[in-house]
Structures are given as C-alpha cells and as structure tokens.
Amino acid sequence: MGDLPPYPERPPQQPPDRRTSQASQRQYSRDQVQPPAADPEEGQQIAPDAQRNTPGWSQRGSLSQQESLLMPRAFQAEEARIGSMEYPSMNTGFPLEFQPQPYSDESRIQAAEVTTSLMQRLQQGQSSLFQQLDSTFPEPPVNPLDPFNLYQTDHFSEGAQHGPYIRDDPALQFSPSELGFPRYSAEVPEPEPLELAVQNAKAYLLQTSISCDLSLYEHLVNLLTKILNQRPEDPLSVLESLNRTTQWEWFHPKLDTLRDDPEMQPTYEMAEKQKALFTRSGGGAEGEQEMEEEVGETPVPNIMETAFYFEQAGVGLSSDESFRIFLAMKQLAEQQPIHTCRFWGKILGMNRSYLVAEVEFREGEEEAEEEEVEEMTEGGEVMEAHGEEEGEEDEEKAVDIIPKPVWKPPPVIPKEESRSGANKYLYFVCNEPGLPWTRLPHVTPAQIVNARKIKKFFTGYLDAPVVSYPPFPGNEGNYLRAQIARISAATQVSPLGFYQFSEEEGDEEEEGGAGRDSYEENPDFEGIPVLELVDSMANWVHHTQHILPQGRCTWVNPLQKTEEEEDLGEEEEKADEGPEEVEQEVGPPLLTPLSEDAEIMHLAPWTTRLSCSLCPQYSVAVVRSNLWPGAYAYASGKKFENIYIGWGHKYSPENFNPALPAPIQQEYPSGPEIMEMSDPTVEEEQALKAAQEQALGATEEEEEGEEEEEGEETDD
Amino acid sequence: MDADSLLLSLELVSGSGQGLSPDRRASLLTSLMLVKRDYRYDRVLFWGRILGLVADYYIAQGLSEDQLAPRKTLYRGAPLLSPQVQIKEETRLVSVIDQIDKAVAIIPRGALFKTPFGPTHVNRTFEGLSLSEAKKLSSYFHFREPVELKNKTLLEKADLDPSLDFMDSLEHDIPKGSWSIQMERGNALVVLRSLLWPGLTFYHAPRTKHYGYIYVGTGEKNMDLPFML
Hints:
heterodimer, A: alpha+beta, eight-stranded mixed β-sheet, 44% helix, flat, B: seven-stranded mixed β-sheet, two-stranded antiparallel ribbon, 11 strands, 24% helix
C-alpha cells in the first residue's frame, strides 16, 4: 500500500456522477445495439466480483514488471478498440462543455474503468469481454501519437488498480477509489496520440485476409477464452496445439441439429441394422405369447455360454459381439428352415471378415434348391453331348481326316450328396451381425483338391475371383467353402465318449470298409475330468470325417462309367480302358483319437492347456490345433465346443511352393508317314536345279543325236 | 497397448479372436503396474503374447519420456531349456520381438509429436482420426525411427508437417497390400491387421483417442505373402 501515489482531493461528486451516469446511459443504448450475449451473466457476476476486486486491486500495488508491461498492452488494445469507428454516431454526441481538463478526467476514468473491468473479465473468462468493454468507453477524438504518452500508461495502469468501476452497478459509482482520479489532470498530456496508436494497432489486428474470414484479433480472443474456460495445466506447453485447435474449430463449427454429419453416415446405417436385430418381431400385444413360445426349443444354441467358456481359455470375440452374433443367428433361424445350427467361427479377410454359421436344415427342405442347380448343370451336359456328336459327324465328312485327339479330360469326381461327407452341413456366412446371411454352395471334390494346392487370402467379397495356379474352379465363395470343409474335417474334436456309433448292422462291409459315417450322442456320457483331458490326446476324438486325397470323404472310383458316358463314343473309351487302375483311398475312420494324428515335422499337431493354472478345479480343458492356427476346442464336464477364428490357412513349416506349370505337351510322334525334315537351303535348291538342267540338256542332246542319226539314215 | 487402458483395449482388439482369459488379465494388470514402478517407466505397453508349444510368453515394453527411444522389453514365461538347439530361446524371443516391432508396430498420425528440442512426446490433445482419414493407410505411421523419410522428394516433404509427420507411413510398405484395414463393430472401430506377421492387430476408435496394438501369435513371419495376395 505504501507505493501508491498520493491522491489529490477529489472534486465534488456531481460531475463524476453526471459523467458516469451519462456514460452508463450511453452504455445501455449501446447494449441494445450489440448482441447481449454475455450481458446478463456479466451483470450478475460483476457485482460480486467488485467487492472482491476492491481489496484485491489495492493489494496489487506492486505490480511485477511483466504485469505492468502486460497491462498497458491490454490497455492499448482497449484503447485501440475505443478508437475504432464502430459507433461513429457517438462521437458527435460529445457536449462541448467537456473541455480538455474534465474531459481528460473522464477519459482517464473511463480508461481506468475499462482496464479494471478488463481484468475482472479476464478472471471471469467472458467471451464477449472485449466487445462489452467496448461499450463502456466513449469515443474521444484521437490525436497523433505522442511518445510522451507511452510513459503515462504506467500511471494509467497503476491508477486502474484503484478503480473497480462496474458500469451497471450504481452503488459502486461511489467507490472511494474514484476519488483519486482528478488529480491526474494536471500531470497527463492529451491522450489523443495514444488513442491513435491504439486504434491503428487494433485496426491492424482486425484485418482479415482474402483467404479467410478470421482476423488475428478474433482468433486471439477465441484462444484466450478457450484457455480461460478450460484452464489446462501448464498452458504454455500446450499453447501451439490449442492454437491449432482453435483455428480448426472456427472453420469447422458444430453442425446444427438439422443436418447430418456426412462422415458418420455408414456408422449410423450399421447401427440401424443392428438395432433391427434387437427388436422383437411382433407387436406388444403378442408379447406374452411370444415369451411362452420362445422359452421352448430354439435351434440356436447358447452362444453366450460358449463364448464364456472360450473366454476362459483366452479365445474368442468379445461378449457384446458374441451377443450380436447370437441375435443374428436367431434371425437366421427365423428366416430359414433350420433344424440345428451352430456358430462355426470367424474367418478374417483383407477387407471384410466372414462370420460362419453351420446349419442343418430340416428334412426335405433344401432339396428344392438343389434340384434347380442340378438341372442347370445337366442341361449343360446334354448340350455338350450334342455338340460332340455333331462334331464327330463333321469330321467324318471331311476329306482329310484329322487325327482325333487321344486326350480325354480326367473324369469328374462327383460331389458328395447333401447331408453326407463334406456336405453334411450347410454353411451360411455374413460379414457382420445385422447384415443378411448368404448361403454357401456345396463343395465339390475338385474344389477341395485345388484348395489344397493354393494359399490365398480372402478379400471379404464372396464373388471375388480367385486368381491362382492351378486355376481354382470357382470364386471366393467356393474357396471359402472348401477351406471350411477342410478345417472342419481336421479340427472338429470332442471328448472321447461323447459321441458313439449308432447301432446298425452291416455298416462295416459297405463300400470296402469306408467306415461308418454316422454317430449319435451318447446319453450315458459322464464327462472326463479336465486334467485327464489335458494330459492325453487319446481322450479327444475327431467327429468329422477325414477328407481323402480325392476330395471326398467316401471314395468313388472315377472310372466307373455312368450311363451318359457310355452312349457317346464307345469306341474311344474301349481303347482307353487299359491299365488305369485306381487304388481305393482310405482314411482314418470316424471317431479316431487325436493321438493318432500325424506330426508336422516333429511338431505335435495339438497343444493342450488348462485354462487357468491357478485354479485347476474350476478350469476348462483347451485344445489348440497347431496345424490349423486358430482352431480351438474346449471341454468341461459334459460340455464341449469347437470354434475357429483365423485367416483360414493351414500351417506349413516349409514355405509355400506353388504348383509348377504342366510339362509341355507332346506333339504327334514321328513315323514313316509323318516325318519332320528341314527345308533345303537356297544353295541346295540352286545346285539341284542346275543338276536337273544339266540332266535335261544331256537327254536333249541324246535325242537330237538320235534324230540326226535317223535323219541321216533316211537320206541314204 | 497402454497398460492404463488395458481392459478397454483388449475388448476392442478381440475381433481377431485371440485375447486374454480373465485370470491372465487380472494378473497382468497387477504386474504391469509393478513393472512401471520398479523400472520407473513413463509408459508401459502390453506388447502381446507369443504362443509356444508348451507355454506362452507374455511381453511388456517400457517406454521412457522420449517415445522413440529404444524400448526395454520384458517377458514372462518359462523359456525352454533345450540343450540341443544352438540358440537360446530367450535370444530368439528377443530377436523376434524386435523384428516385429520394427516391421509392424504402428501408431496413428498425430498421436505423437516432435518438439524442436528432439524428443517425441505423447500428444495429449490427440482427438483421434476422422472416419475418412482412418480408412487410409497414410494416416498410420511405423512406430520407429524413420527409414524412408529422407528418400522423399522435396515436393512431398513440403506438404508434411514436421512436428507430426516424422515417421514412415504405411503407404509405401512392401509388399503392397500387406495390411488389411477393416471397420468393425458397425463402423465404430478401425482395425488394421498385418498380413506379413499374422497376429499383429492394431485398433483405433475414430474420433476418440483410443488406439493400440497387440501381437498374439507364434512369432513367425508369413513368407508366403506374395503368393497369397
């Protein structure tokens, strides 16, 4: 308090009151002009702050060097605004009686008011700070810059400490600090040069460029407001990023509620689709009936329970994803005539992934579609048969008999019937829960054989072509189905005893020991203790049939002639019947224990684990396939389940070697009637020609000689 | 992934199928906390899990204040002591982790920034990529010292922001197409999976600051990648 400059006596209250009341009147009129955005808050907040500020201001007598520098700058900025010509009409409203002396008083008072309220609002963080302060200031005419004025700003700022002037509160017009102002009248020269400088500076700050609407002034206002609103710790270090964010926000305002955000559109669409999953079919009145019906049997298994067990093993999708999958499968069950279904797993792709459901239709349901497909293929075959016959006729008519090609395509191995072998189950895929399910076609042996030779990533689109060598007969949907078949055959396992063979006679003698292909659940299954399951692989068995090298589960002799083939070209076939004998392929029978599986280069094909080593009594036995990474099975008590989540490829310790192209085909063999010789060269031809001419000339001479002799004889 | 947001991260990365069982999660949370305390790391990342024949390794990495400084790697698991093999399994493990890190550890653009003094810092005002940016490979960088950056032409460099674009982006990775970029969870999550090192999964929720990567796999490079694309 000691360094406050002494105040001269305050002049009578009336002029300041008059001035302030007039000023406040002017402010009110201005307020109506300006958008009173922060007005009500300001009015409320200033009043309590004023009381606080008064002692605070007086304590701030000793301003630090920085603050004193800061304040005049702010003050100058203020003055710059004051000097702006936003309200030119106000300039003319100055009564002439405000001569320099009292005028300077008022301007100083106003300046002080401005600065103090500026500081107050800095504390309160009002966004329209400067704009509001603008209204508090009258519009004095500005003078050219006088260097002397600059030094006076310190006095101004110090004086400002003592004047927490609140424009709206009439009670504070009588604050004692205002008593001290008029004493400056004798010391300070005209403020006009200062005003001009400030105005110039402010005008410069307010200018906007052609490219953007934002002026530096406004940007700084936004930035400081943001900082004061958010109060980050250590604001100096985050200043640059805040700067960037503020600029960004100016150009990307929050869209109003009527317009949609274009970027989020696909997200919202997807959410809509998934929301449809959650709504129940049927109206509210039927709700009770549905409850009763739904409690009964549904073909959809308890996916959440499975997901829980797999989670114990550290495998599987998250629980909300599993729930969505459950709802999607429920939807599938409603759309298709399904007898049983199961979540098979997830195959990852490059652009999208596939969720696969293994499904068994009810009896007789799927045959309709199958027949349509078969008719189309049969029609194709008949057309080809006609074509061949006509071709043969044409060939016979031609004069030159072109040697008929000896090559015949290898016989097509027929695909397995539905519900048997590799086509035992039907598979449906979708990319995400909520999207419609697509049915995958049955797999043919040719596709499986080819799938074993190639290794390709899935793109996520079922109709994408599979570009490979050897060329894959089908598109990605077929390749996916083939891989699903291979994975199922290799990795679907269950604890020993869960399934048993159904009691049927004569099974073993069929088809040369192809083995039984049907099993049923064992009602007496007691469950195997988890520790035993983990210890020995003999406690687990495959319950899907192994796929033979032919591509089928049951062997078919490809040389067996069907009736159609016998109709065509019998002669040709008889020639072929020679030494081609195909050995029957045999694979391990159903329900083979895993301990019989072949090793992969000294690597065990399966790894077993307890889900939790810390509490073995409650844990679950987990089996992981090393041959097909991503295939897992768990068993606990009487429950077990399989799942596959992965890329869909087999593991091979060696690098992948693509099939080599076929060897070059042989041309027709050289024989006496067809022999390849090189053409004679030009010299040889000329030599031959010359020799021929000589021979010709010799014979002509002989003839002439003979004629002459004859001619001579007749003359005698 | 950051040890602080381990549970959320594991939830988001579960689309790849491999995760952690609840007991592992619990023990990891505790041990990562202890690691952070004992080694005085600024950030601890749970790097992933390497599947072994008999047991798995759980790997954690510690980062100091400078994000690009060499990281310390810690593992937990029982190394096999096989006297026949020339290399100790521990060495092999470390080299595999290093290879994977150098090849496929990634970070979204803007998550780290470089100060003029040198060290890189976590960007606390990183609000996430927008949806359109999240689907582009160029918005993701390798989390390592840049290798290809200096080979860029001046024209390309003119568009870069030196405080944000100081690492290699994924655009020019060879072979092209070795990253699979997908949206999951109904478009609310972008997941990048490496096809070169199958098992590496990176996730990011656009417009939020959640991101991270984890490796769960056998630690083998997919040398057949060119045939598979």
